[in-house]
Design brief:
Layout: E1 4-11, H1 15-26, E2 32-34, E3 46-49, E4 52-55, H2 66-75, E5 81-85, E6 88-92, E7 95-97, H3 103-110, H4 112-127, H5 136-144, H6 146-161, H7 170-177, H8 182-191, H9 199-206, E8 207-211, H10 215-228, E9 232-234, E10 238-245, E11 248-256, E12 259-270, H11 274-279, E13 281-282, H12 287-294, E14 298-308, E15 318-321, E16 330-333, H13 334-337, E17 348-356, H14 361-364, H15 367-380, E18 389-402, H16 408-420, E19 425-427, H17 439-453, H18 475-487, H19 504-509, H20 515-540, H21 547-550, H22 563-610
Parallel strand pairs: 1-2, 1-12, 2-9, 6-15, 10-13, 12-19
Antiparallel strand pairs: 3-4, 5-8, 6-7, 10-11, 11-12, 14-17, 14-18, 15-16, 16-17
Helix pairs in contact: 1-10, 1-17, 3-4, 4-5, 5-6, 5-7, 12-16, 20-22
The protein binds flavin-adenine dinucleotide (FAD).
Residues 11-17, 34-37, 42-44, 56-57, 59-60, 238-239, 271-272, 276, 301, 400, 429-432, 437-440, 442 line the site of flavin-adenine dinucleotide.
Length: 615
């Protein structure tokens, strides 16, 4: 028996949980929201440290889902919701580089000698690509050259994912960077096209909305609104067990300050990490489901917020740190997100972001150590002096990134089938569904889950960045389907062992011709024809019959209709046909490459710009 009975229990007060409660409140149904942390907002919270506000990563508000946008606009007024221009550059070797590359800026930053070496290494990669192209390192360096790859891709990617770039599947780079190359990047920059062909998408990447005092402001306001409408939002409370029987969840056992209570409900919405949800089931889930849940992995994240006694450090919202000498991956300048994020405009608050695994060396260091590390690294890369750092604090965020490894898809299938049998619990949100997605995805899944409680039949697992939404459609579902389609434009992507599907149609239709193989084949055919024709004439009776063949001696010095001449003829014919074949294959690949380039043109810029986003 439960100690308390509610109609709806929502686990987690992040964007997904609070959106569910908000939508329920609109429909007149109160929810009991349980949050483990002492603040709401989940990963999208804003921390307030002595009046300095900062995010867990910087959280841009951008979506193409109108229902999500509508909620944002109804919760915060237009004065509270700022439209910000985006500036985010790469910081390397004490220089700032624009992304996408701008030639003069790149040349100035890298220096003439280095730029020449980069071009030389690019040409080398084009002439002698590394094969097989089965890992990230190979894929990127084949397209950008080894030097540029080392400067702009290797270090940051390895910092984010915590694994050597040569162990990351090539498919991820292919999916992420699509068909981009150095030439394309430079051409984009030179022509200043700067457009993906979609004005809306361009707007999304160049500017974004942001609440005056960070994303937490949105979620704190929503928590207030749902409480006013009769819901409970209880923070500092952990869901310890989830009891189920047959095909229903009966109750959750919660723990607050050592006090335990069981809450029964008719319906449950969970946003807690999927792995944890399965581990907390009572009785335990079948062994194969537990094994699947245990195989889900996460990448964790910590922010070292440093307060500096300086008004301006850099103008960007955030910068990417590609310097291998330091561990920091990205630095946020929160004042540039909104001036309201700092209590005093003569000061600056920087968020130094470190990607790590829960429990590893970095994670386990004391806060004081991490603050010292942050200040030291800031000075090492030349952004600020150690002595300018006045104060600091550390926030650790476990499970910031659900990892898409080789096993996660199969694991999700098993878990999904099992959960599908429990008729009164729905899992939504980022870790709730093990989906590496943004706030809008979390919100949309929560909104659709609430509709399901009122009779709709949305399959929430189909709400994904790059998937079609398959279901029998009613008019509401058609609307939902179109909203799901638009999600694809705003979701980040992660390394995944996925089949190389991007542009597979084009790639198959215009498969690259192997120049060497074609040239050798053509050379052999031509050489053998000359050789056998000459021998044939020699055997048949020489000169009279072979008068026409003698003409070859005009072009092939030393050729005669003789056995030696047959061999000389073979060598000459092979060489000419080889050169001709190689040139032909090269030109063919080049022209078809241009055609493919044109076809992909619309999406390239966006892919390039978004390459390092959302890590
Ligand atoms: C570095 C970084 C940058 C990002 N940038 C952006 C961005 O620019 N724009 C954007 O839209 N999105 C961004 N995101 C993604 C965004 O943070 C998430 O999509 C969003 O917060 C997910 O919301 P959620 O409610 O699904 O999950 P969460 O935010 O994870 O919330 C889940 C909640 O459940 C609680 N919980 C977990 N277990 C229990 C338990 N046992 N009992 C009780 N409560 C529990 C957690 O404490 C948490 O509060 C970023 C993420 C990261 C890591």
């Amino acid at each position: 028996m439960s100690d308390r009975r509610e109609r709806v229990v929502v686990i987690g007060a992040g964007p997904a949980g609070l959106t569910a409660a908000y939508q329920l409140a609109k429909l007149g149904r109160a929810a009991f929201v349980i949050e483990r942390d002492h603040v709401v907002g989940g990963i999208s919270r804003t921390v307030n440290y002595k009046g300095y506000h900062f995010d867990i990563g910087g959280h841009r508000f951008f979506t193409k889902v109108s229902a999500v946008e509508q909620i944002w606009k109804e919760v915060l007024s237009s004065e509270e919701f700022l439209r910000r221009r985006r500036l985010s550059r790469i910081y390397y070797n004490q220089k700032f580089f624009h992304y996408p590359l701008k030639p003069l800026n790149a040349l100035g930053g890298l220096g003439l000698v280095n730029s020449c070496l980069i071009v030389a290494s690019y040409l080398w990669a084009k002439l002698f690509p590394k094969l097989p192209e089965n890992n990230f390192e190979c894929w990127v360096s084949n397209r950008f050259g080894w030097r540029l790859y080392q400067t702009f891709f290797k270090t940051y990617t390895e910092k984010v994912w915590g694994m050597p770039a040569h162990t990351i599947a090539a498919e991820w780079a292919a999916q992420r960077i699509k068909g981009l190359s150095l030439l394309v990047a430079l051409k984009n920059a030179l022509l200043k096209s700067g457009s993906s062909g979609d004005g809306v998408v361009k707007t999304l990447i160049d500017s974004f909305d942001y609440p005056q005092r960070g994303p937490g402001m949105m979620w704190e306001r929503i928590a207030e609104l749902v409480k006013q409408r009769g819901s409970h939002v209880t923070v500092g409370t952990v869901v310890d067990t989830i009891s189920w029987r047959g095909n229903r969840v009966e109750a959750v056992r919660i723990n607050r300050d050592g006090h335990s209570e069981s809450i029964g409900a008719d319906e449950f919405i969970s946003t807690m990490p999927l792995r944890e949800l399965i581990q907390k089931l009572d009785p335990p889930a079948p062994p194969e489901v537990e094994a699947a849940a245990n195989s889900l992995n996460y990448r964790d994240f910590l922010t070292v917020a440093l307060m500096l006694n300086r008004a301006d450090v850099f103008p960007d919202n955030w910068i990417y740190i590609h310097d291998p000498k330091v561990s920091v991956g990205r630095i946020q300048n929160f004042k540039n997100w909104s001036p309201h994020m700092v209590p005093d405009q003569t000061k600056t608050c920087l968020g130094l972001e470190y990607f790590c695994f829960e429990g590893d060396g970095l994670w386990a260091r004391t806060d004081a150590d991490l603050i010292e590390l942050g200040a030291r690294e800031l000075e090492a890369i030349g952004l600020a002096k150690r002595s300018e750092v006045e104060d600091g604090t550390v926030v650790r965020m476990p499970k910031a990134y659900p990892v898409y490894d080789d096993t996660y898809r199969d694991a999700l299938k098993v878990i999904r089938t099992f959960l599908g049998r429990l008729e009164n619990i729905q899992v939504v949100g980022r870790n709730g569904m093990h989906r590496y997605n943004n706030q809008d995805h979390s919100m949309l899944t929560a909104m659709l889950a609430v509709e399901n409680m009122f009779g709709a039949r949305h399959d929430l697992w189909e709400v994904n960045a790059d998937q079609e939404y398959h279901e029998e459609t009613t008019s509401r579902e058609i609307q939902a389907k179109s909203q799901m389609g638009t999600l694809a434009l705003t979701q980040p992507q992660v390394p995944a062992s996925v089949p190389l599907t991007a542009h597979s149609g084009l790639v198959t239709a215009f498969a690259r011709m192997d120049k060497l193989a074609f040239a050798v084949a053509l050379g052999l055919v031509a050489g053998l024809v000359t050789f056998t024709a000459t021998l044939f004439l020699v055997i048949k009776g020489g000169e009279t019959v072979g008068r026409n063949m003698y003409l070859l001696s005009e072009f092939f010095f030393g050729y005669t209709v003789s056995v030696t001449g047959a061999m000389i003829g073979f060598a000459y014919s092979f060489l000419w046909a080889f050169l001709w074949g190689w040139t032909f294959a090269y030109l063919r690949n080049f022209i078809l490459g241009l055609m493919i380039y044109r076809a992909k043109r619309k999406v390239e810029l966006l892919s390039f710009r978004e390459f390092v986003d959302h890590f």
